Amino acid sequence: MNTKVYIDPACNILYASFYIKGLRKLYGYKNIIFSSKPFKGLHYDNENFLLAFVINDKKYIIDPADFNTLQYLDFVEWADLYGKVNYNINNIPQKYIDKIIPIGANLIFETSDTTFGVEICEDLWATIPPSSSLALQGAEIIFNMSADNEGIGKNNYLCSLISQQSARCIAGYVFSSCGFGESTTDVVFAGNGFIYENGSLLAHSERFSMKEQLIISEIDVERIRAERRINTTFAANQANLGDKKAVSIATEFVNSKELTLTRKFNSHPFVPQGWPSSGPADISARFRRKAHSR
């Protein structure tokens, strides 16, 4: 039997469209029903962008308001589970603790191998991106799922932005945008995919490709940890976090395929490119030739 999802039609449909699209993808288009019957007693105002829905008689609320306190207690009382952006457990009354679920950018996911955070699209373009806070709280890799459209000269700017942010955060940065086939008459997508590590590009996709692409590389998290330990500026900035603590979520990394390393490392990292690498005698000979030519 198909699971029916009931959504309150009194909510701000335009603002909640992203969440509704996700419910449609999970449960099927035909199983999404807009009906006011399960939501009697809920009252919205012009500044209320909450989304209320019911699945299997369980009542859910998504609250995207950027307040670290509960603003809509009647919705909290009604719900069985209440998704809250900008979650701060210290500002939540004890009787509601069990029903509050953190959502938003202030989440850190911990695995046995690494710790990562997620930001969405224009978060990267913000004055202080969420990834800055996440990195200071331990995130070693940042993922960004984006719908970043193309513009004249924008690709170079985007690459510079990702490179700088991964360098500032001393972190890996994985960026994935909409595919070329998702372009419309209004916007064009190039299917950008980038993997950066501490400012260096490791892998990138082919732009405007009509085929599906998968880019693979390895991020050296042990190197990232070592860089952070010796970078005094990074450690000093942790004092600027204030009380905005990220919520840690324990998860597992599942690797279903045999791991094959794709990165190549320079066997002579301290020798300038283009110089002979067979020994000091060759380097001395080059200097002599340059001196003689002068």
Characterization of the model:
It is built from seven helices and 13 strands. It is an alpha/beta fold and 294 residues long. It has a seven-stranded mixed β-sheet with strand order 12-11-10-9-8-7-13, covered by helices on one side. Helix 1 (17-27) links the parallel strand 1 and strand 2 (32-34). The chain is globular.
Structural class: alpha/beta
Sheet-strand content, in percent, reads: 15-25%
Distance between the termini: 86 Å
Helix content: 10-25%
Shape: globular
Report the C-alpha radius of gyration, rounded. Answer: 25 Å
Query: Which strands sit side by side, in order, in the main sheet?
Result: 12-11-10-9-8-7-13
Largest sheet: 7 strands, mixed
SSE succession: EHEEEHEEEEHEHEEEHHEH
The tally of helices reads 7
| Beta strand count | 13
Low-pLDDT residue intervals, each spanning 5 or more residues: none
Q: What is the typical, i.e. mean, pLDDT?
A: 85
Tag the structure with descriptive keywords:
294 residues, alpha/beta, seven-stranded mixed beta sheet, globular
In short:
The chain is an alpha/beta fold and 294 residues long.
